[in-house]
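This week, study the protein below.
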Amino acid sequence: QVQLVESGGGLVQAGGSLRLSCVASGRTFSRSAMAWFRQAPGKERDFVAAITWSGGGTSYADSVKGRFTISRDNAKNTVYLQMNSLKPEDTAIYYCALNSRSTYNAVYAGMSDYDSWGQGTQVTVSS
């Protein structure tokens, strides 16, 4: 079972930036699609961004496009989410997710595509 550990969350003012990291244990990371999801209080968990095995392909939710960037370092078993121009509506718990069953070097945007999840890291954006 792969373990995912997120870090980098915190409190930031609107317009600020944060960089989230997610480190994965195990040997399947380099052949696993990765993604970030988020869940605001009282709301469902939503897709934020996804990246292919190689890092050459990415996908973003419309609400974060142009502000957030997902990337990965397979040598470090780590996926990142650079968040710029943060808004109060970005406040949520952010979860990284791993798809160890992906048979294609593609992006996956559905929660059901992912079989391992981190514990989440809180991001709070004040106005």
About this structure: The CA atoms of residues 80 and 107 lie 15 Å apart. The first strand starts at residue 4 and ends at 7. The mean pLDDT is 95. The radius of gyration is 13 Å.
